[in-house]
Sequence to fold (236 residues):
Amino acid sequence: MNYSNKKEEMKLGDNTKIKAVFFDMDGVIFDSMPRHAKAWSEAMALEGLPFSEYQVYLQEGRTGSGTVTDVFLAHGRGVPTEEDIKRIYANKSRLFDAFGDPIPMRGMAEVLEKVKSLGLEIYIVTGSGQASLLDTLNHYFPNTFYKEKMVTAYDVKKGKPDPEPYLMALEKAGLQANEAIVVENAPLGVRSAKGAGIFTIAVNTGILKDDDLWQAGADVVLPDMAALLALLNNKK
Ligand code: CA
Fold:
């Protein structure tokens, strides 16, 4: 298999301490990133600001206000006002919601079943703050996710790439960093997880180059959930 770093694959296979898998949500559980990318790009275009879908993928994980601020500063608009942030984020949300129901990531149900069969706990660590998040997860993946095993936008002060969300997941789980693994799709998410000291599998489900994820510090970079399932099947 040419997608994975052999040394790190062995390390994962040899690690008998793992008790939980921390999953990111957008671009991992749900195939939502193409929609976020289009919605952000169009919302910025309404402001006359260029923000390519590739740039959205690179910025994924930042808060809405952080994203607006970065784009404003990059184009010499100075720091955005609260009003700017509210307007642009409202437009982005409207454009995103117009896409309709979420789409589960291809192969995700099989991965979650495999993780359960290995006796590992499943946590969600997301910057998303939708009130209906747990209902949505339960609808698509019954009996898999629980309120006490989630870290969302409501729980943290600093989002990804700060390590806080993943440190909080370790705290909630009562685990050491070497007792969990993370599944992420975004460079800032990988940086957050690695900052918390956790072995991090990046699944490149979007339009980024694998190198964007390696550069962020990923321990393994995989092309899709089928490859992740294969890796989990190799875990004794
Ligand atoms: Ca993500």
Notes: The chain has eleven helices and six strands. The chain has two domains: 4-32+103-233, 33-97.
